[in-house]
Design a protein that fits this description.
This protein has 393 residues and is α/β, with parallel strands linked by helices. Helices cover 40% and strands 15% of the residues. The chain has 2 domains: 132 residues, Aspartate Aminotransferase, domain 1 (Alpha-Beta Complex); 224 residues, Aspartate Aminotransferase, domain 2 (3-Layer(aba) Sandwich), CATH 3.40.640.10. The chain has a 7-stranded mixed beta sheet, with helices on both faces. A 4-stranded antiparallel beta sheet has the order 9-10-13-12. The protein has a two-stranded parallel ribbon with strand order 1-11. Helix 2 crosses helix 10, helix 4 packs across helix 9 and helix 11 packs parallel to helix 13. The chain binds pyridoxal-5'-phosphate. The site of pyridoxal-5'-phosphate (PLP) has 13 residues, from helix 4.
């Protein structure tokens, strides 16, 4: 297993569940779930599909209808023109990312991962036999990768760079100019491919979908895999629909792996995804506006907690909170808070608030909290966190 452990998110979910089972009222700020429901017309489409008998295996690479809907969405949102044989539908974008790595990595191949990062990138690379090369992104650059840091991290073994926009967990949003600077470096290194993960592309607060590399620099399109999914944009986390678009030869390899492992995605979920992508898109801006208000309120409240500080992000539904001010302090039970993992454990065990430790995201001392929760939950979580911080000596 190459030292692979269960993903930190799944371990946290299990512990929160255990505590809840003992009757504790745990507020979960650690998960990637949105509290919004999947839109009604999407659920209706799934119901209709089931009643129509669309309950059989679909083509491994996805139904023609969903591939067409993805093709249209990529054109609409990014002016990117992909043919159907350049698109694959996957079981969540997780599978698109992993299968791409599995298809391409040889032992000792390196994958550049800007930090802070979505934790599974690292273990996915290791599982596929490669080596993650983590490049820290400074807070004073908005947690975004600098062109010169990318250049310095490149070696003859670099096979991929992962570019997530906007970034989980920092919420950083790469502008077109930011991406152009990165593209200029990559154009000088023709052997490096780009895994462009746009899962949160519509959870942005400036009204336009987050740009993706292939639309910024068409010369990189032949070596870019544009990955996204329905989970966050349409609150369809559990439906498990993702997709990848890229050169036909790579897409064929991804499909081959998919055919031998999980096979195609759920037929019902694919029908639902067509309705989400083809239907009215107002839900995206409406929900982004709600999240923006929650973001501002939560950031304001957390900045009132002794030892914590955060800056409202431009995208995603996470706040990355600097907790340097609580490190070294002592909890009422005498335990010293030495790391952000200790602080996360303290908040969970003593304040009934589950947060994500920065250690698992490549950035310490920080915690990541989600504001994809109802306002009342956010207010209560902030109250509990404030009390917990005040109790530290
Ligand atoms: C940055 C990022 N990429 C990919 C994924 C995978 O999402 P899914 O498999 O639900 O599409 C997640 C999930 O939280 C994520 O945060």
């Amino acid at each position: 297993m190459r030292g692979i452990k269960a993903s930190p998110a799944s371990v946290l979910r299990r512990r929160a569940r255990e505590l809840r089972a003992t009757g504790r009222d745990i507020i979960e700020l650690s998960s990637g779930n949105l509290d919004f429901p999947t839109p009604d017309h999407v659920i209706a489409a799934a119901h209709d599909a089931a009643l129509r008998g669309e309950t059989r295996y679909t083509d491994v690479d996805g139904t023609p209808e969903l591939k067409q809907a993805v093709q249209a969405a990529l054109l609409r949102d990014h002016h990117l023109d992909y043919r159907p044989d350049e698109i694959v539908i996957t079981n969540g974008s997780t599978q698109a990312l992993f299968n791409a790595l599995l298809a391409t990595l040889a032992p000792a191949d390196e994958v550049i991962i800007p930090a802070p990062y979505w934790a599974p990138y690292l273990d996915q690379v290791r599982l596929a036999g490669g080596t993650p090369v983590v490049v820290p992104c400074a807070q004073n650059n908005g947690f975004k990768l600098r062109a010169e840091d990318l250049q310095a991290a490149i070696s003859p073994r670099t096979r991929w760079i992962v570019l997530n926009n906007p970034v989980n967990p920092s919420g950083a949003l790469y502008s077109r100019e930011d991406l152009s600077e990165i593209a200029a470096v990559l154009l000088r290194h023709p052997d490096i491919w780009v895994l462009a993960d746009g899962l949160y592309e519509h959870i942005v607060f400036n009204g336009t979908p987050a740009p993706t590399l292939a639309e910024i620099e068409p010369r990189l399109k032949p070596r870019t895999l544009t990955v996204s999914g329905l989970a966050k944009s349409y609150a369809m986390m559990g439906w498990r629909i993702g997709y990848a678009a890229g050169p036909a030869a790579l897409i064929r390899e991804i499909i081959t792996i998919q055919s031998q492992t999980t096979s195609g995605a759920s037929s019902i979920s694919q029908a639902a995804a067509v309705a989400a992508l083809d239907g009215a898109q107002d839900v995206l801006t409406e929900r982004a506006a709600i999240l923006r208000a929650r973001r501002d309120r939560f950031a304001e409240l957390l900045n009132e907690c002794a030892g914590l500080s955060c800056v409202p992000p431009e995208g995603t539904f996470y706040l990355l909170v600097n907790c340097a001010g609580v490190i070294g302090k002592r909890a009422p039970d005498g335990k010293v808070i030495a790391t952000d993992r200790d602080f996360s454990a303290y908040l969970l065990e003593q304040a009934d608030v589950a947060v994500f430790p920065g250690e698992d995201l490549g950035l310490s001392p920080h915690i990541r909290v989600s504001f994809a929760n109802p306002s009342a939950t956010i207010e209560e979580a902030a109250r509990r966190s404030k009390r917990a911080c005040e109790a530290l000596q």
